Amino acid sequence: MPFAQSKRSAILKSIELANKYYRSIIEDNSFYFIITDLRGNYTYLNSFFCKIMGCTPADYLGKNSLSLIIPEDHQVCLDTVQKCIINPNVSHWVVLRKPLNGGIIYTQWEFKLLFDDELQPLEILCIGHDITPLIIKQDELQELAETRSDENSRLVNFTYIVSHNIRSHVANIVGLIDLNNNSNAEEKELAWDMIKTSANNLNDTLINLNEIISIHTNTDLPIMAVSLAEEIEKIITAIPVLLRDAEATVDYNPEKEALIDVNPAYFESILLNLFTNAIKYKFKGRPLHIAIKFENRNKGSLITFKDNGMGIDMVKHRHDLFKMYKTFHGNKDAKGMGLFILKSQVEAMRGSVEVESEVGLGTTFKLFFARN
User: Fold this and answer.
1) Which residue stretches of 131-227 are H helix?
2) Is residue 63's pLDDT more than 80?
3) Rounded-to-integer distance, Cα 74 and Cα 89, Å
4) CA distance 372 to 355
5) Angle at which helices 132-181 and 185-217 pack, to 10 degrees?
6) Angle, to 10 degrees, between the axis of helix 264-280 and the axis of helix 228-238?
7) Checking DSSP bridges between strand 249-252 and strand 289-297, what pairing results, if any?
8) Three state DSSP letters for 65-87
9) How big, in percent rounded to 5, are the helix, strand and coil portions of the chain?
């Protein structure tokens, strides 16, 4: 064999081996390699991508690449392709979501415009990898950060309340004692009554604060399935006189089979709170009507508690609704603890609460409890 022909054969063999080597890298590693034409139709899919997506190249060659991307990400994908055409000398990065096995995987992609021999735009090379575990961890960290932020906010609020309220009660008692030391018999008796009132108020404050501490420190709260209908009947049986005086009717739809996953003691407290609030803030001159509905949701249970009472001005009070010592109707007996404790108890059971209300029409509480 002539030397030149032998050399050419060796070069071709070397190129063939190199092609096989680089193709094996593309085919066998854990990166996705995709090529599309300028219209976005698949012209190449590497085997790893096909393995993850559960398809073969024949399934998608010639089809539009948007078919494997969730609709919400179509525009950002098209925008990235447009960036490649406008600025072809650099890579452009994008995160896209793809449906897979009833769920979604997150993929990060590098898009790069490819040219033909005449330096005309030909295809788009897309190199990607799965970042789903990273996104999940990021979401978990974000949720943890929000939880910690919320806990810190509650702690600051709680510390302020402890400091302010206890100091106020103590200062009042000290002042009354000083006044008592320089008073006549009649003034002493009046001062003593005022001291007893202040001491009782201080005791109430300490009881309320202790209950809140108990809720937020109880990390081993037992959760079990209870019958909503039975819990409602239990409350109705416990406060018949209050309901009668309010001319109340109670409509509720849950059957005995309607079960919710809650802590029984907390849930009884929540229901009692809702019932007594509805009675306390009924619309004057109008019989009270309470409607309770139950809905089974995918991840838990939704309970709607609606009354036709005085209602709350949500424009004015929405942000204070669940804060400690916030009252909304000028009721001298109101202490502003009920809704704060209710929300704390709901959240301690991995639940959530929303409120809708309109002055003169009534209030609706929506309580969601996760399935255990």
Assistant:
1) 132-181, 185-217
2) yes
3) 23
4) 24
5) 170
6) 50
7) parallel
8) HHHHCCHHHHHHHHHHHHHHHHC
9) 50, 25, 25
- Tell me: the pLDDT tens digits for 229-245? 988 988 888 888 888 98
Contact present, 260 and 368 (Cβ < 8 Å): no
Distance (Å, whole) CA 168 – CA 165: 5
Q: How far apart are CA 304 and CA 291, in angstroms?
A: 8
Coil vs helix vs strand at 168: helix
CB of 35 within 8 A of CB of 43? yes
How big is the chain by its Cα radius of gyration, in Å?
A: 34
Question: What one-character DSSP code corresponds to residue 153?
Answer: H
Q: How confident is the model at residue 171 (pLDDT cuts 50, 70, 90)?
A: low
Do residues 110 and 82 touch, judged by C-beta distance below 8 A? no
Which residue(s) pair with 261 in the sheet?
225
Examine the pLDDT at 11 and tell me if it is beyond 60: no
pTM confidence score: 0.49
User: How confident is the model at residue 193, as a pLDDT?
Assistant: 75
